[in-house]
Amino acid sequence: MPSPELPRKHRGYNAALFAVVLGTALYGMSGPATDTLSNLTRYCSACWRNARLPIDAWPDATQEVFVRLLERMPADSWDDALRSEGEERKELLRAIDCVKKRVQRAKTAQALPEEGVADDSYRGELAQADVREQIARAANEVLSERQRQILRLWAEGHDVGDMAEKLNMTAARVSDEKYKAVRKLREHLGVV
Q1: Domain layout of the chain by residue ranges
Q2: Which residues contact 185 (CB under 8 A, 6 or more apart)?
């Protein structure tokens, strides 16, 4: 049986399809071709184990090595890649190393959030929560109950007229109390 070699115009997506077709065709066969695939699979598994890749990534990584080998050398020379120290062996080692590094980079990128590294938006939310807590603490220390109510309503988006109606006060008095409350908080927090 002649060795299939992937033409240059069928690289990329078609290479993966070709690898699946080749694997399916060889799966039901016995003999040297399937022995070579089994040996390559075992060799790749040993490499993945030594590189400490996640075991669930092994089948995809091995398939990617097969695709890379199909792109670079005929399938009948794969057996030589396991036996000799020639160009076939170098291609196999290059393919394994390339796939190993890609999987390790992907593993590292996913490991960062699991280690509790916060993204910038989360840090910003924490900083805002800290500022709100400081303001609330300061408000309890230096403001009257009426001034705290006015600032709470103001923070909720109410205008001076709404606040005056809710608190049974004149709009001028609400505005004056709001101004005094903000000034007290700024002085207390050292914000000018």
Answers
A1: 8-114, 120-189
A2: 135, 138, 139, 142, 143, 191
